[in-house]
Structure formats: structure tokens, C-alpha cells
Design a protein that fits this description.
It is built from eleven helices and no strands. It has 257 residues and is mostly helical. It is globular and about 60 Å long. Pfam families: ABC2_membrane_2. This is ABC transporter.
Length: 257
């Protein structure tokens, strides 16, 4: 893989997303944060600090998910639809470089958006004089980026063999089911039907366990898993992302346009 060509693709995707006013979402995030904080203050005065802290992180996850599901499926589909894919693959650029470049470009834009939202979030907490555990909150945001990387890779994979609309649906399904993975395991322990139990176990092995990357529910209380668990969870998310990208390249390399 040529890193110069990969960088050129990622830079093009990054700048294109900025031209599409990606950072305007940060303004919407700020408005939603202030409005939500005001509402929480009115209805939950006793525990408002913890709820506002958790609310800000949850909104950050939702805004990042919006970018993933509505942008990623079109990264390659748009090239195919406009027939510009023929021009791209005719150039001295491999499909590996194209897929990885587009993934890194979108991930870079997401990282910038998360960075801006994080600044707004921490600034808002400072204005309200809400105390919060800094290290757990920053760790949660870091794991959020790993989750976005995994979901972006999944959305790219889906967009290779389905329409953008179906890819959006499958990415959303991956997100929601992935966050319910721990519940699936718990459910499997009480099910007596062997066939259904085998189906649930197989489903659990295929769908990424995104609950391992979701730390916000405990982070607002200053609690984090042990360092070994954190490293294992981060490695899990990164390796799963690499696997999905490799599978995307494998399928994309064998597709005829």
C-alpha cells in the first residue's frame, strides 16, 4: 500500500466533508446541549449534574452516529453511481488504498467534530460549575472514537454489496444490536431452547460487541474498568475495524463495475 496515495484519498474525503459544513453539527450540538441542560435542571434538580454530564456524552455519540450512517454508505456508492469509479480504478491506485483512504478521511473528520464537541461540552460544564471526573470522561470520548471507526468500517462493508439505504439500516442495526450484546448473553443463560441458544451465540459472535466500548454510564461516576480490561477492549475495537476493512477490500477487489 502506498501511503502517499492513501493520504491523498483521505485528504480529499476530509476536505469534502468540511465543505459540506460538517462542523455546523457542532453548533447544533451546542444548542442541544444548552436546551437539554436547561430542561434537565427543571425536572431533575437533585441529580442534574450527573444527568447533564451523561446527556452531553450521549449527544456526542448520537451526532457522531448521524455522520457515520448518512455519510459512509455514500463514500463508495457515489463513485459507482456517477461512474467516476472507472476513472479512479484506472489510475495507479489500488482498491486497498481507496478503501483505507476513504475510511481514514471520514474518521479524521469525525475526530475533528468530536474534538470540537468535546471542547463545547467541557466548556459548558465549566460554565455551569459542574464537577466531573476528567480522566474517565476523556477516556469515554476516546473509546467513542474507536466505536466510530468500527461502525464506519461496517458501513463501508455494507455499502459494497447493498444500496445506501439498506447500508444505513444495517449500520443502525449493528449499532443497536452491538450495544445489546451483553443483554443477549444474559438472555442466553435463561433460555432452555438449544436451537435458539445456538442462534443467539452465533449472532453474538458475528455482531461486534459495542457495549465493550461504551463507558459513559459508569464514567460519569468516576468509574472505569481495570486498565487491562480497557486495553483489551480498545484492542478488540481496533482489530475488529481492521478485519472489517480487510473484508471490504476483499469483496471490493472482486466486484466488477
Amino acid at each position: 500500500m502506498n501511503f502517499i496515495r492513501t493520504w491523498a484519498v483521505s485528504k480529499h474525503v476530509f476536505l469534502e466533508l468540511l465543505r459540506e459544513r460538517l462542523l455546523y453539527l457542532a453548533g447544533l450540538y451546542a444548542i442541544g446541549l444548552v436546551a437539554g441542560g436547561a430542561l434537565i435542571t427543571e425536572v431533575a434538580a437533585a441529580t442534574e449534574n450527573k444527568i447533564i454530564t451523561d446527556f452531553g456524552l450521549a449527544m456526542m455519540l448520537i451526532f457522531g452516529l448521524i455522520i457515520v450512517i448518512f455519510t459512509t454508505p455514500n463514500l463508495l456508492a457515489r463513485e459507482v453511481e456517477k461512474r467516476t469509479i472507472f476513472i479512479v480504478i484506472a489510475k495507479p491506485i489500488s482498491r486497498l488504498e481507496l478503501v483505507v483512504g476513504k475510511h481514514l478521511g471520514l474518521l479524521g473528520a469525525l475526530a475533528l467534530l468530536v474534538l470540537v464537541m468535546s471542547g463545547l461540552y467541557l466548556g459548558y460544564l465549566a460554565i455551569l460549575k459542574i464537577s466531573y471526573p476528567l480522566v474517565p470522561v476523556l477516556t469515554t470520548i476516546g473509546f467513542m472514537l474507536i466505536e466510530f471507526a468500527l461502525l464506519t468500517a461496517a458501513a463501508l462493508l455494507f455499502s459494497i454489496f447493498t444500496s445506501p439505504l439498506i447500508a444505513i439500516f444495517l449500520t443502525l442495526a449493528t449499532f443497536f444490536i452491538g450495544h445489546l450484546s451483553s443483554d443477549v448473553v444474559t438472555l442466553g443463560r435463561v433460555i432452555r431452547n438449544p436451537q435458539l441458544l445456538a442462534l443467539l451465540k452465533g449472532f453474538f459472535l458475528v455482531v461486534p460487541d459495542l457495549s465493550r466500548l461504551d463507558l459513559k454510564n459508569t464514567a460519569v461516576y468516576g468509574l472505569l474498568p481495570d486498565p487491562g480490561v480497557l486495553v483489551a477492549s480498545a484492542a478488540y475495537g481496533i482489530l475488529y475495524t481492521v478485519f472489517l476493512l480487510a473484508l471490504t477490500v476483499f469483496i471490493f477487489a472482486r466486484r466488477e463495475f
